[in-house]
Amino acid sequence: MIRLPAFTYLAPTTVDGAARLMAEHGREAMLVAGGTDLYPNMKRRQFEPKVLVGLRGIPELRGIRGSAAGGFTIGAGTTLSAVAAHRDILRDFPALATAAGLVSSPQLRNMGTIGGNVCVDTRCNYYNQSYEWRKAIGFCMKKDGDICLVAPGSSRCWAVSSSDTAPVLWALGAKLRLVGAEGERTVPMAALYQDDGIDYLAKRPDEIVADLQLPPAEGWRSAYLKLRRRGSFDFPVLGVAVAARLEDDVVRDARIVLGAVASQPRPSEKAAAALVGQRVSPELIAHVADLAAGPAKPLDNTDFSHPYRKKVTRVFVARALAAVCGLGDSGVTSEEVA
Amino acid sequence: MTKNEFAVIGRPLPKVDAWAKVVGETKYADDLFLPRMAYAKLLRSAHAHARIRSIDTSRARALPGVVAVVTADDLPRVKFGILPVSQDEEALCADKVRMVGDPVAAVAAVDEETAEQACRLIEVDYEPLPALMSIFDSLAHPEVMIHEYGDGPNVHKNVALQFGDVEAALEGADLVREDVFFFEGNNHLPMEQHAAVAHWARDGKLTLWSSTQTPHYVHRVLAKVLDTPAAHIRVIATPVGGGFGGKTDPFAHEIVACQLSKLTGRPVKIALTREEVFYTHRGRHPVLMWIRTGFTREGDITGCHLRTWLDGGAYGSYGVASTFYTGVINPVTYKIPVYKFEGARIFTNKPPCGPKRGHGTVQPRFALECQLDKAAEQLGLDPADMRRRIVAEPFTKTANHLTVTTIGLGECIDKVVEASGWRDKRARFGVSARQAPRRSPKKRGLGIACSAYLTGAGTAIYWNDMPHSGVIVRADRSGGVAVLCGATDIGQGSDSILAYLTAEVLGIEPKDVHVHPADTSLTPVDLGSYSSRVTLMCGMAAIQAAERLRDAIFKAVARKLEVSPAALVARERKVGVPDDWDKAVPFARAVELGEALHGVLAFPGSYAPPKRAGKYKGGGVGPSPCYSYSACVVELTVDEDTGTVELENVWIGHDIGRALNPLLVEGQVEGSVYMGIGEALMEEQVFRKNLHKHPSMLDYKSPTTLETPDIHTILVETDDPEGPFGAKEAGQGPLLPVIPAIANAIHHALGIRIDEVPITPDKILKALDLKRAGKPARVGPERLPLFTFKEPLVVESAFGQPAEAVVSRPFASDDKR
User: Fold this and answer.
1) Residue B532, domain member (yes or no)
2) Has residue A12 got a pLDDT over 70?
3) Is the ipTM of this complex over 0.90?
4) Are A329 and B704 within 8 A, CB to CB?
5) Where is average pLDDT lowest: B34-43, B252-261, B329-338, B455-464?
6) Of A325, B212, B373, B671, which has the maximum CB count within 10 A?
7) Which CATH class is domain A59-119+160-214?
8) Which residue range forms the structural domain that includes residue B514?
9) Residue partners of B815: CB distance under 8 A and separation at least 6
10) What pLDDT shows up at residue B438?
């Protein structure tokens, strides 16, 4: 089997302590929570940390607190299984429960955390390979190389944001609390990301996602659809998160965020704006789906062909909108699997 | 003999190794740990095609913890390969690499981490050569020779056989269809990666424990490539965690482990990674197919002409056999009066293809069954009725001189048609049944396909007159019985079958029978777990051995009870006269009586298939003692907006001859259906920039239980005179019809034809776009290679000639003993 390289494991018991350790060890250190993505990546030498700062022994990172009226706070170290099965989340933020429950397989959801999923490494099928494979093809700029193999003329990396929960949290208007060695700050989801396959997280390396804060649920409805090859294991190659607030048949507020179409979750603000103030109808949904899918530019670096992913983007946006708007007769299910 | 007369046969018993596997007691090769054992890793080529200028291992040797580093210079320069005609492999490449993943050096170290690190310190100076990554590339560049042998530049094998006047038969047809299909390559994906432990002891004798389906062939190859007497080599087959044909060749890692053990004096373990399994491969050949078939108005086939082009990859492996198998088994299923087959296997710079479940027959079966479906539609015939009409005749010969015995295909078709509600659903589902405007994007469809497969290859891999299977049955005074047989249980349950058959003959329980793993020093030769041969061939040998033991025991018990041996029966762990059962002797006592009379009670059984090879060159591939038959109906839903296919139900009727254990048969059938679904919808071993695109279990897509529909298995028993208690094979045949049945069901649902597998959602959407544009709604290969097949060997068709049932088999009687 492929073996893990040697590393030092540090086990702080507070978030502050973890942040200090990260600052102390600098570029040599990485955070680990469930380890479901990090350890396989270390075996393939995609990550080569000398020091791992483990978050599993920090009690304050665990658990879900709050209410529908006041909003919920989810500790970043809460497992994906716990999020998916939480009664209040299921009732008030069904898209989040769905997304958490669609990550990988049951075993990995029991280990993997929501904070880990929000920060999960971007993926590319030129990059998610063994060291020997990457060496044979000549390495790419994301690790050990200089060029992008999917877009050779490009000066940036096009690895794909592969979180299921991030687009949903973004669509739900969630914020996150970051704790760093020099203090803490609370920012909207959008502020965590930037569209670069290598530096996809816009936070300082010592900053730790401590918790995720969901706003009051009042009147919002949400849906998440995931495209992947199989009903288990697979990362999303398209995620569609839709949240909307309706009064009668009229949309008062809406957010549409696409996952796995860029190096960060991508909001479709134009499409969402086209919904607001409108009475829902199949024609409106078709129009909005076109607007949302238009800017999606998948590249040939994940499962499925990229023209196919682009085609299905429109279908999935329409289906997610139909589900949220109560026009769910177009074959939509909460667990869309292609 | 009716079913009721059996005590063990026909009962749904658990496998004899079920508990050990379920609770983790089974020791696979990677579970073996010997004192002072070193761990080895192979350094593999990063180039698809290159000359090796030099290899510098000095930095690797200097790494603390490394105990040996080897290159081709440290091994005898002897090439090997599974087939005598294709000796083209090297354990470590000497002068040239032919694919990414070719082994060039190896390291043994105190642990795996050190071995891996040392491999990265080996410097290989390569001179890259042009990489030929497809059939078209390889034929277009004869100046770039991957190998120096074969039937032409980059042509490994070129075959052409003709049985009867096919052109005349096609001219006389009411409908002639010409279609082109492509079947993408795929891997076996066994759960257990290949692993081996070698120990070259100080007495100069070598033992190799390996996860292999063919310990006997590995034994022969080790003797050859290590330049060591076979008598001093012992190969022990460890339990195999899934084979499917992927562990049927002798492999570089086995040879290298032996040599490293010789050099270090330590036992050496080598366990491949999943990525290495994809390079070791021997999986399904990508095959391009052209098929031209004539039909009468009623749906009879007048004649068939098939051409296949196989993308063989970098080495020969079983490729010559694979090439023949794309042609020669087709005439076994339906009445095909005249037949022509041309096939070619082309070398490319990719991991070598070989035998995967259904070896070579899966691809043309897809082509033939899809073409039949198209013909039925054109002729206005129901595809199930049309197939039912043309089922081959039992106890006849095919056009290409294969002897067919029992055929349960008609009954299989009838039963799956009835169980699936075929007639009702074909009328209700499907694109032609829908008049109403679109409501749901999910469309339902139903498709059917059939197939046949051999129960054991009729000829051995190397020419010889010896048994294909040998068994020794030894009774001990406890009443236990040991069965020694060179067969390997690869999960198909061959150890269980040996226990059941022995127990049945001797009137004891399967738990009383101890089946020992294949060990070339202890067990008689069995050729290996391939070609669905083990239940039939080892089974026949086990029955013969057990009957000899029973006869000896009966003789002794008869003397004690003062009755005739012919009056005795063995059952319920006793031997006695049925009418006087109170006096019956317990089996353990009967063994003591037998041993007192005869001495040690150990008896051999031997089996070789009837000699039926066609009297023409190439006639050795295809004959089998008997053939299994399968019919499959698939019910599915396709989402026409996303192209997603969801399987609802699979009904599969399988002519098993006799189900020795219906539970095991159903397990084999369900496994075949599952594997067929993966090949039909997802799996593809494809390459990009000369590298395997996704050599991991996450990114190489294969279905999970969530993608597996309800499988309804219907067993049809035909009691074949060639099989043990009438049994035929179950391990491979049921895979064959699943793939075309899925393709045909998708056509029924949407009115589109996807003439290549895997049938992925993007191909479905593409075909729907073509359909909406008023163009032919087909996605499939558009061009064929420019290639000249050799002049065919023309032989008269033997179609319809009566065939003898049981002809005399070698070793069948006791006369020779």
Assistant:
1) yes
2) yes
3) yes
4) no
5) B455-464
6) B212
7) alpha beta
8) 3-25+467-607
9) none
10) 57
